[in-house]
Design brief:
208 residues; alpha/beta; six-stranded parallel sheet
């Protein structure tokens, strides 16, 4: 099993995916790998998400597939049982923190303030999801955090578009970013795999 450092080292932009049809999981995984993307995040917002984990990994064994929108302990274990390689939460409660640390999977817990980041790292989380990145301050906020919290590493997600990804990746405390623009819900539902592959190839060329 990869740890969180190994996972983020494989990533530039992590696609954040809302998948409605499990039949789309395999061609989506194919498009990501052809484009050079090695890490993807499904969101636990659709009924197809859990089934899609196994389908994506079967289609492309080199693809690291995480599950996002983890908000309860039940979400953790449903996702683990489905075969998720890592977990992502929008925020962090004490109960969720305990279960994430105990479940045996690497995770990216969500934080939005300096205090939340300090609390999460004190518990042992090494890389944090900064969410929602744009609404809570974006580049300026993350730059400000790098002063007092120089050892904290972030994966900002939320409102970051294609043309902004490199700006975030250039920050010293950002290891990767999350973005839905690589594979939008409409592009997936319409089977626009070449478009997704093109987006993936662009994202894979970016570096932090």
């Amino acid at each position: 099993m990869l740890d969180i450092d190994a996972i983020v080292a494989k990533a530039t932009v992590i696609p954040v995916i809302e998948l409605d049809n499990p039949d789309h999981a395999a061609p989506l995984a194919n498009a990501f790998i052809r484009g050079g993307i090695r890490v993807a995040e499904l969101t636990l917002r659709t009924s197809a998400a859990l089934d899609a984990v196994a389908s994506m990994k079967a289609a492309e064994p080199d693809l690291v597939v995480g599950m996002g929108t983890i908000t309860t302990p039940a979400d953790i274990y449903r996702s683990k049982d489905a075969g998720a390689d890592f977990l992502v939460s929008p925020g962090l409660t004490s109960e969720l923190a305990s279960e994430l640390l105990a479940c045996g999977l690497p995770s990216l817990p969500g934080v939005a303030t300096a205090g939340e980041a300090m609390a999460a790292t004190s518990l042992g989380f090494e890389v944090l999801k900064f969410f929602p990145a744009k609404p809570v301050g974006g580049l300026g906020y993350l730059k400000a955090l790098s002063g007092p919290l120089p050892k904290v590493r972030f994966c900002p997600t939320g409102g970051i578009g294609r043309d902004e990804a490199l700006d975030f990746l250039s920050l010293p405390n950002v290891v990767c970013v999350g973005g839905s623009w690589l594979a939008t819900r409409s592009a997936i539902n319409e089977g626009r795999w070449e478009e997704i592959e093109t987006n993936a190839r662009f994202a894979a060329t970016l570096s932090s």
